[in-house]
Amino acid sequence: MAYLHRNTTTKAAAESGGIPHGNLTSTNVLLDENERALVADYGFIPLLAVPIAHQAMICYRSPEYQNSKKVSRKTDVWSYGGLLLELLTGRVSTYSAEKNGGGGGGGGGRVDLWNWVYRAVREEWTCEVLDAEIGVQRNGVPGMLKLLQLAMRCCEKSPEKRPEMAEVLKEVEGIKAVGESEDEEDLSMEQSLEDESISTTTTSANGG
């Protein structure tokens, strides 16, 4: 997304700061054979009739899009924030609250994911919104909480308060780098403990 916003093919697009995707959803993010993310459906949204385009973005639409039906770089940022929230919580952007005492407040209603997460953060049960699979991963939670904070910033109701995609990319890469560094430190410590254990066992076996 940062690439789309930064690299343009027309003077008008360059002057406006790039061309927005306009239809970023989890179903439009694909993985190639090397597990690199590919964004599909770029540029299709202007070809759709307004009601169809509106429906296509219903789970990812920003507040200003609801009023103007116009896309911008900041509507893309909102959509990206929604996508992050889906990944972190394991829920879709609008989900059924049935059997969910924490986020629903009422039977089988529909709950906006952003509002549900915002309530969780406000009431200080943030960790409970994270997907259970994340909790069992080594060093997973701290990085996920940072991503959650970033997602909330992306989903600020005021477009001016949302970061640019270039800033989002920089923060995601920083979070990733810290996580990889911590994993390497843990592996190094485990290897050191394993070597020490082997050395102790060998010494004992030799009667030392």
From TrEMBL:
Pfam families: PK_Tyr_Ser-Thr (PF07714). InterPro entries: Kinase-like_dom_sf, PRK1-6/SRF4-like, Prot_kinase_dom, Ser-Thr/Tyr_kinase_cat_dom. Gene3D superfamilies: Transferase(Phosphotransferase) domain 1 (1.10.510.10). Coiled coil: none annotated. Residues 180-197 have a biased composition (Acidic residues). This is Protein kinase domain-containing protein. Residues 198-208 have a biased composition (Polar residues). It comes from Linum tenue. Residues 1-175 form the Protein kinase domain. GO terms for molecular function: ATP binding; protein kinase activity. Residues 176-208 are annotated as: Disordered. Signal peptide: none annotated.
